[in-house]
């Protein structure tokens, strides 16, 4: 993974990588407690080197809005990320499937969406 074109981060056996501009993921999971929709930054959560059963504490912490500081869970903040995996992994955007991909580019454009509430 390459963050902002300069910071290279490598992982073995990544279970999932999630990028957020809002603290909550579908169903109320708070994978990125510090994410903000208007700062122009992505909050990225990486879960790697874990057995599936070790994912349970991470999910429980995210349900209660606490960051999991377990070994194998890492958090990053950046404006842009490029992710490459050796074997294609399932990708979804807001719950919509993008099928399996080897390479994805993620970017946050500050204040690109305006809403009247």
From TrEMBL:
What residues form the membrane-spanning segments?
none
The record's listing under Gene3D superfamilies reads: 2.60.200.40
Can you tell which superkingdom this protein's organism belongs to?
Answer: Bacteria
**What are the residue boundaries of the YegS/DAGK C-terminal domain, all occurrences included?**
12-114
Pfam families associated with the record: YegS_C
Under what name is this protein listed? YegS/DAGK C-terminal domain-containing protein
Species per Swiss-Prot/TrEMBL record = Hungatella hathewayi DSM 13479
The taxonomy runs: Bacteria, Bacillati, Bacillota, Clostridia, Lachnospirales
């Amino acid at each position: 993974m390459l963050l902002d074109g300069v910071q290279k981060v490598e992982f073995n056996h990544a279970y999932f990588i999630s990028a957020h501009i809002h603290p909550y993921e579908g169903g109320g999971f708070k994978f990125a407690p510090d994410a903000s929709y208007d700062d122009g930054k992505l909050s990225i959560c990486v879960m790697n080197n874990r057995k599936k059963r070790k994912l349970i504490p991470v999910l429980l912490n995210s349900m209660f809005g606490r960051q999991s500081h377990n070994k194998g869970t890492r958090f990053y903040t950046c404006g842009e990320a490029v992710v490459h995996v050796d074997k294609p992994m399932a990708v979804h955007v807001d719950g919509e499937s993008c099928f399996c991909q080897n390479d994805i580019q993620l970017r946050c454009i500050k204040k690109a969406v305006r809403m009247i509430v």
